[in-house]
Amino acid sequence: MLIEKRQNHPFLYTGRLLGDILTPEDFHDEHQMIADLASKFVMNEVYPKLEKIENQEFEETVSLMKKTGELGLIRADIPEEDGGLGLGKVSATIISEKMALGRSFAITFGGQTGIGALPIAYFGTNTQKDTYLPEILSGEKIAAYALTEPSSGTDAMSVKTIAVLSKCGNYYVLNGEKQWITNSAFADIFIVYAKVDGTQFTAFIVEKSFKGVSTSAEEKKMGLKGSSTRSLILENVRVPIENVIGEVGRGHKIAFNVLNIGRHKISATSLGTAKRAIELGVKYANQRMQFGQCLSSFNLIKNKVADMVIKTYVNESAIYRTAGMMEEGFDYMKKTGDDFATTIAPYAVECSINKVMSTEALDEIVDEAVQIHGGYGYMREYEIETLYRDSRINRIFEGTNEINRLLIATTVFKNHADLSEGEEWKNGLLQHERQILQLIKKLFHAAIQSINKNSLSNFQIEQEIAALLADMVITIYAIESAILRTEKLIMRWGEEKNRQKLDCTKVYTHEASQQIALRALNMINHFGDEEIFSRFASRLIMSSSENNVLIKRRIADVVLEKERYYC
Prior knowledge:
There is one protein chain. The protein has helices spanning 29-46, 50-54, 58-71, 89-99, 104-116, 118-123, 126-138, 251-287, 299-336, 340-344, 348-373, 383-391, 401-414, 431-453, 463-493, 499-522, 524-527, 530-540, 548-562, and strands at residues 143-146, 162-165, 171-182, 189-196, 200-207, 213-215, 229-240, 244-245, 289-290, 293-294. The chain is globular. Strands 1, 2, 3, 4, 5, 6, 7 and 8 form an eight-stranded mixed sheet that branches. It has a two-stranded antiparallel sheet with strand order 9-10. 56% of the residues lie in helices and 10% in strands. The protein has 567 residues and is α+β, with helices and mostly antiparallel strands. The protein is built from 19 helices and ten strands.
């Protein structure tokens, strides 16, 4: 696979598509083995205990975490020199996707493998790794990530928790409160962010056994009822200076880079949940009789099923493209000796893209699956009702989607470069879709020109413009990922075997481009630059040359026959 150069997010700046990408069809035997292991664990070990987990019988959760440790699932992408298996980001993404079926347990597991373990694994000293990682990776001890506070929310840098160095210089005294901390009821180790002397944002390892550490009662949540969510209270907690992670005042490097990985893991978990929602929806539609025929025979139901599958195919393409890129980046780090921060930071935009796209797609997919169930979807005894409630938090987790949009827009605006025309378009099954993609890229660059021309670059004020810019970036990455995957597989196996993928790519490209163009046209007056925008946006509004109604029926028929996500 060709490595995408990391400068300036090249998918935005070249007129031609960027070579080979990793797809799920590229999984080798080790990947398939990992997927099978994780799936069997969830179905055989987690599913039978979901009722107890949902009732917050946390001893079941703790026991299951130890089993994941025994199976090596926690240590999958931790470097071998730190006690991990070093299987890479693709395997870790597969595990996150498969664990999604464990619902609340998936949140506990994700907190352990991502934002709980990675600050120590990536940024800790050798002594910290030797002290804490073995029991975290074995599941013997549970880790939690303590960043959010009642007054700070998504604004991580405004935390009020204070750390003061003792007169003897041997420890810091921490005081403050952290809110909505996952795993807090049974966590043994907390990654806590505090400001040394009220100014220097710093990461600390705080043990539950330290005097002055306590937690509040469980929060009463809308969903994910089987996960633990409490406040962490720190009252004159003495933390040895050896427990500072990284440098004093440089905690943001740890927090933000670990959150990038966390966002990617949430994307994979959302993907797994979306596939489950599709399965529940199509099975119910095939079984439910209305007006003397199966619900699945109605074309409006087929339209819903097709939309669910199309979004999932494109989302899956983008997520595993990113996983492949990140794995290559980490492999390159081993050769060059770069640090983790330098390696992770270039993927911040892609991680945010996937987080926004996957969590919003999931909400739409789960909502439609409930609609297919009708009144039964509103009943607690049906699994889809639980998925509906559980899914909503994902758009808030790891930075709200609004914050992630601002991050995307700010980053791509700062790194903007000119669009190269690239190669001539070649004839092919997706030639029209390639041309549409190129038009969206031109619209994106026209938007940036207009922002500069009209002094609209203060995104703290011009947040609507930032959101539009971010959604253009998301649309470009999504469409390009789907086209690259589909063309790759058509070259490998031919058109007929990839008809479903081809159909999904065509419909998504048409509908997503229309949506983004319509939004751009509706904001022309605010930009004050009609000429630049209308050149590209109006062309994207044109109707499709395909019969998308029949294509969607064809997509749905395949999935209804398989009774699961199939693409």
